[in-house]
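<amino_acid_chain>
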Amino acid sequence: MRLLFNFFASLRLTVVLLALSMVLIFLATLDQVDWGVYEVQHRYFQTLVAWAHYPTQFPGASALQGLKVPLPGGFLLGGLLLVNLLCAHFRYFRAKWSKAGIALIHGGVVLLIVSGFTTAYLQQENFMWIDVGGHSNYIESFRDVDLVLIDHTDPKEDVVVSIPSALLKPGTTIQNPALPFTLRPTDYFPNTAFFMRSENPNMPTVKADHGVALNTAFGVASKPFDYAKDTQNIASAVIAVDSAEGSKGTWLVSTLFDGKETPPFLAKNLPQTFTVGGHTWEMTLRPRREYLPYTIYLDKFIHETYPASNVPKRYESQVRLVNLAAHEDRQVFIYMNHPLRYQGLTFFQASFAPGDTSSMLQVVRNPGWLLPYFSVAIVGLGLCVQFLLSFIKHLRSERAPATVSATATASYPARRAAPREPVAAPRP
């Protein structure tokens, strides 16, 4: 047990872990070009084991691209560094006032590592689109998609049933107690390309016979998932609806039909609805939503560029936050480095629609967002305390020799030399 403790407390382990961390960061930076920031974080840092492949930027990538090497992931390296720091601290630390600064520094670093794990597990990123003059009371996920069935029969209240896209596996049957029918997914594409059939007449046809699919002027084809940061993947699915009344047809649903950029020639077939038992149901595929207990109104959106260029100078959303339950109604300005923080969410200015007709706010939920600030403050305080203690110790050591010399001189006074007798000069 002692040997194991000494191993985890050794400085050599620290050096090895830091070196592996640098290698992991280097490889992740290279792969960020192909996979994007989110996917790189998931594959390299938010995992115990990362599978690194030969970088595509290096010579011979075409022949060695299939080569994969296992490396300790970010979670594993972070956990080992945390254990290493704690073991080294308890091995060498002595409870003295002179070590107070070291204790604060170690505590701040431990808190910083813990904040990294907290952010990785708990942080959620969403977005909110608001039209100028409009409002919104929900946020949407960047990556999670739901198949949504909405009963519009009651004019006062809609019945909404959401089905995660992970359940849309071809060949399965989906049953829900709130639905008077069953769903049979026949196709699901995480990313799709829409094309005009006049330009690609040999492309396969859509296996749907109701709704948007009746417009035979276009086609749909699956394409690889795009991990680029500024690329929006278009998820699509083909769903067959069966009820006790018989088949209600096979429908093509897509996130393209629920977005801000739905083509006009498709919009005339939207929304896609069918009737079962006297109830009218709408079916759509859209980003996962989370409804908020308050509403944000977009009064004005400001988009300014530098003179004689398209380089952005200023993005600003002038919004009004209305929370009836809290009797709150106030105006807020959201722009670069000036987000809105409210009830655990942070709203950043992120993008806008063509023509400046809408504004997109990035909405982040991170319960541990204050931990990095606290950890940096604790480390800074520890450095200051350690500097002051070392400085005081240095001053004391400088004064000590002078004091001893003065004491020795006072105890043993110097003796005066006896006057020397004149020496007579020799006579000539």
User: Anything to note?
Assistant: The mean pLDDT is 86. The chain has three domains: 2-92, 124-131+291-363, 141-289. The first strand starts at residue 49 and ends at 53.
